[in-house]
UniProtKB/TrEMBL annotation:
<dbReference type="Pfam" id="PF00041">
    <property type="entry name" value="fn3"/>
</dbReference>
<protein>
    <recommendedName>
        <fullName>Fibronectin type-III domain-containing protein</fullName>
    </recommendedName>
</protein>
<feature type="domain" description="Fibronectin type-III">
    <location>
        <begin position="3"/>
        <end position="93"/>
    </location>
</feature>
<dbReference type="InterPro" id="IPR013783">
    <property type="entry name" value="Ig-like_fold"/>
</dbReference>
<dbReference type="InterPro" id="IPR036116">
    <property type="entry name" value="FN3_sf"/>
</dbReference>
<dbReference type="InterPro" id="IPR003961">
    <property type="entry name" value="FN3_dom"/>
</dbReference>
Length: 101
């Protein structure tokens, strides 16, 4: 199996992150997120059906930085770093301090 790819950040603000995920032949997705620098064993996660679509994480703390990754079929995708301290940030807007990676 291959790691999740084609994950798009559609929008992000002080308390939420909206992702677009393609359909997965490897099974359901887990969108995992943790405050930056904390161990992944303490992460929260959102289960996303294998059919994909648009999904929103809604319990982020304003003015915080998070590590976000997507897992499917036992494979972990690339990590992204998100700073919720920048109003109106998204993956489409390359604002400094928004989506770092």
């Amino acid at each position: 199996m291959s790691k999740p790819s084609q994950v798009s950040i559609l929008d992000a603000d002080e308390t939420s992150l909206t992702l677009s995920l393609p359909a997965s032949a490897a099974g359901d997705y887990q969108v995992e997120y943790v405050p930056y620098g904390e161990d992944w064993s303490t992460c929260k996660s959102l289960s996303v059906p294998a059919a994909g679509g648009t999904f929103t994480v809604t319990d982020l703390v304003p003015a915080s930085t998070y590590q976000v990754r997507v897992v499917s079929g036992g494979e972990t995708g690339d990590e992204m770093v998100l700073d919720t301290g920048v109003p109106g940030c998204s993956g489409k807007k390359k604002k400094r301090g928004c989506v770092v990676q």
